[in-house]
């Protein structure tokens, strides 16, 4: 039986998802400042490993905890909502099945409390 990772097209599909996701994020005026000064190639690799692990792919996610990785970044609820929306749109753009897309966005959503570290401004 194929894993969901294999069903969506594996590494190549996730590579497309991650490229499209960061293209969207870096064009978003709310989100782009959060990524200034970061090594985008490294972030893309971590994102692909995370998504691959969620879909039972061969990846083993070995990065820092979500809380530690996002500490001090000042991610707001609005910013996190925008990230989830960009992820969902990127999955659709890459032709990922609805079931896999739901699994990935649900997994990302499960880290909301670890990633959102700042209050939204009124």
UniProtKB/TrEMBL annotation:
The keyword Amino-acid biosynthesis belongs to this UniProt entry's keyword annotation: no
Presence of the UniProt keyword rRNA processing in the record: no
InterPro entries linked to this entry: Globin-like_sf (IPR009050), Globin/Proto (IPR012292), Hemoglobin_trunc (IPR001486), Hemoglobin_trunc_I (IPR016339)
UniProt cross-references to Pfam families, sorted A to Z: Bac_globin
GO MF annotation: an example: heme binding
Cofactor(s) demanded: heme
Keywords of the record: Heme, Iron, Metal-binding, Oxygen transport, Transport
Organism domain of life: Bacteria
Binding site for heme: 46, 70
Cofactor: record remark: Binds 1 heme group per subunit.
Family, as annotated: Belongs to the truncated hemoglobin family. Group I subfamily.
Protein name as catalogued: Group 1 truncated hemoglobin
